[in-house]
Structures are given as C-alpha cells and as structure tokens.
C-alpha cells in the first residue's frame, strides 16, 4: 500500500506518520506514506504556491500549476486515484476507507488558505472527501486521518483482522464498552459477565451492548441497520433483548425525579 500526500507542510505529516503503529508498519515495508512539498514544484525562485483569487475576496488560493506538476511527478504518467480533502466533499467513513484499501496506490491532496484552483480539481481529482461539517485551516489533519484509517487495515499492520472488524462502524454499529483492570475502580465494578470466563455469554453481551450504544448515540446508523442479515434465532434474540433494555433504560432516564 502506497499513499502519497501532497502538502505545503510535509514535516507535519511525517511527524505523525512515522510514529506508533503506522510508523512501525512503514519500517516493516507494509505501507508507505510519503509527504511531498507542493512548493518544490513552484515556478519561481520564491517557491510561490498561492496567489490572490480572481474576482476579489480575502485570502489566497493555491495555484494550479505547482499542484499539477507535483501530481504529475507522483503519478508518473499513470492514472492514480486522487482525493482532495475538502469541507465540501462527501463524508469520509469506514466504507470509504475499505474502498481506498482496495487501491494499491492513491494520492491525497491537502488544500490550504481559501482553497485550491478549481481547474486542478477538474483535471486531476477523482473525488473530494470531508471529515465532517466543519472547516480546518488545511487538509493535513484529514489526510493523516484517512491514511491512518486505511493503513491499519493492511494485512500485518495490526495483529489480525479481528482488531478492526469488531470496532465501531465496521458493520454499521458502534463498538461495545471496554473494561480493564482493576475489577472495581472508584466504586465502579466491571460487568460481572465479563469476569465469567464464558466466551459465548461475553460475545452475546458485547453484541447486545453494541446495539444499545448505537441506538442511544447514533440512531441514524441504527436506522440503516439491516435486521435481515441476522440469520439465526440466537442473533435475533440478542437484538430483541437490546431493544427491550434500551426502551426500559430510556423510560427510566425520562422519569421525573421525585422526593421522598
């Protein structure tokens, strides 16, 4: 897996992508995340990569030609799937991360200032992606988030696929609560079932809690959950228990406090 990131601030990218799990994966040759400075392809001695917008207005716009020359160098005359990180893009999610995982090589373009020349987007960009309905000072943080989300699914980066297949959003649900030692912390006890050693009961509890957490925190996601994918009676029973417990807990939360 190779990911090229076009940016005005390569040191920012390298400082993060060379650390922790992704850094170790790069050392092993499992992934390659390379940041390239767009200014290296500027046409003047001052490495100018931006200018005032046509039509007036505040701020600067990144120039098309340095972007284009940088992109041409990275794609080496071949078509390489190219993503522009933009607040106007489609929302990035786990499904999109899986789609990018299927590509051996893709390019992420980081905008800055007031944006980039639309002509470069029209000529070279395949899709625009957004981290959400908010605006950042540049595309570097979103680019690193996309690279991390994709790289961690590359075989060998994590110990096994279970490390990410049971996490939030993999199957359209949020992950169940996690607990570790000690068994009691500040008067709060770990759910007894997690101490039982009964793997089947633990698995059922985790699935039920995953349903409940999704219903509570992301009803929009739960509304999209396809119950027909549950093929066994046991699976359908867990879902029904989750719905009943969630409804009961909702009623308790909404009951007014009364004084004795």
Précis, in short:
By secondary structure, the chain is of the alpha/beta class. It has ten helices and nine strands. The radius of gyration is 24 Å and the shape is elongated.
Description of the molecule:
By secondary structure, this protein is an alpha/beta fold. The chain contains ten helices and nine strands. The chain has helices at about 10-15, 20-25, 65-75, 95-100, 120-125, 140-150, 160-165, 200-215, 220-225, 235-255; strands at about 1-5, 30-35, 50, 60, 80-90, 105-110, 125-130, 185, 190. A five-stranded parallel sheet has the order 2-1-6-5-7, sandwiched between helices. Strands 3-4 form a two-stranded antiparallel sheet. Strands 8-9 form a two-stranded antiparallel sheet. α3 runs parallel beside α5 (about 120-125). The longest helix has 22 residues, at about 235-255. The model has no long low-confidence stretch (mean pLDDT about 90).
Q: For the report, how would you describe the main beta sheet?
A: 5 strands, parallel
Structural class: alpha/beta
Question: C-alpha Rg, in Å?
Answer: 24 Å
Query: How are the strands of the biggest sheet laid out side by side?
Result: 2-1-6-5-7
Low-confidence stretches: none
Mean pLDDT metric = 92
**Assembly form of the protein:** single chain
Helix and strand run: EHHEEEHEHEHEHHEEHHH
Strand content: 15-25%
* Helix percent band: 40-55%
Shape: elongated
**E-strand count:** 9
**Helix run count:** 10
Ends: how far apart? 64 Å
List keywords for this structure.
elongated; alpha/beta; two-stranded antiparallel ribbon; single chain; 260 residues; five-stranded parallel β-sheet
